[in-house]
Amino acid sequence: MPALNKLSAAQVRTAPAGRYGDGGGLWLHKRDETAGKWLYLFKQGKRRREMGLGAFPAVSLKEAREKADRCRAQARDGLDPITEREKQRREMRRNLHLLRDIADDAFEARKAELKGDGVAGRWFSPLELHILPKLGDKPVAEIDQIDIRDALAPIWHSKADTARKAMNRLGICLKHAAALGLAVDLQAADKAKLLLGQQRHKAEHIPALPWQDVPAFYQSLDDVTLSHLALRLLILTGVRSRPLRYLHLDQIDGDVWTIPGEAMKGRKDKTPDFRVPLSAEALRVIDLARPTARDRLLFGTKRDVISDATMSRMMERRKMTARPHGFRSSLRVWLSEATDAPYEVAETMLGHVVGGAVERAYRRTDYLEQRRQLLEFWARHLQSA
């Protein structure tokens, strides 16, 4: 029988980075003097397995030994401790009853599908704002179409897009509950839609300046401030606000700015990076912004980065109805009306996915050189009288 309890609490607390065995398969792996993780090493048949028991110092030496003891007992009985832990977690999830708990669990399960693991909160916020305050503390098995109708009726027509998203997220939560073995009505969301009726709200496009008017506005952004410089680069490149606001200087190589695939709207981690050719004017704007960059974020601030609202408020103060995102529309209409740019090139300028999966697999180009020339023409248009 191998010796157990080789370590002391003082050793665990003061040991430098390294791996330390407590005996019986329990190990402490310290990244540095203050933090690490507990591991249980065991053999399952001919395979060596490694099981995490928690972070140090959140899990004490005593707790780690208790966990290791349970694992050793399971291993002696021919069980796989990792498999048994997963069974226990599934059993715990089966006991989730309130919609609030189901929603949290469904969100955790889908984080890997969401951009930035859903940190921005856009997936969860429709539930958090419009469903959970009314139904969050109700057992999920008791939720019916009447409950859902009553929860969403106040915004069904006035905030149609938000209501649609809230209904969609709730449907996902009900399916998640069913997968956990809970008795739920999977048709409740569809029945609620019938009770609520057809939405009257019509989608409104974000106001945009006509492309003929953009040069005057562009030339009025003559201050070397973050809001002016960010708006100028936004107009010059036609990108969305978020990747621009989080532009890291390491993303710029010569006259090409590479936006990571996961930063592109509606795209997943496997999406290729998106290259943006930078015109001479765009490079000049970047050089003007470099001296105030924070942590190599071109538009960094003391708290984070310049906000989308900062640019929008600046336009509001000028009594403009147009908004920053609308400059993408200005660029797209200019491409259609003032150039002979092919459809595929024009759509790629805005980072849109063009064609089906098979077509894209054979069209292995991002039209970088064509887009470079067009953005130079666009920059000249912006600087014209």
TrEMBL record:
It comes from the Bacteria. InterPro entries: DNA_brk_join_enz, Integrase-like_cat_sf, Integrase_catalytic, Integrase_DNA-bd_sf, Integrase_DNA_bind_dom, Integrase_recombinase_N, Phage_int_M, Phage_Integrase. Residues 204-375 form the Tyr recombinase domain. CDD domains: INT_P4_C. GO terms for molecular function: DNA binding. GO terms for biological process: DNA integration; DNA recombination. Gene3D superfamilies: 1.10.150.130, Integrase, DNA-binding domain (3.30.160.390), Intergrase catalytic core (1.10.443.10). Keywords: DNA integration, DNA recombination, DNA-binding. PANTHER family: PROPHAGE INTEGRASE, PROPHAGE INTEGRASE INTS-RELATED. Belongs to the 'phage' integrase family. This is Integrase arm-type DNA-binding domain-containing protein. It comes from Mangrovicoccus algicola.
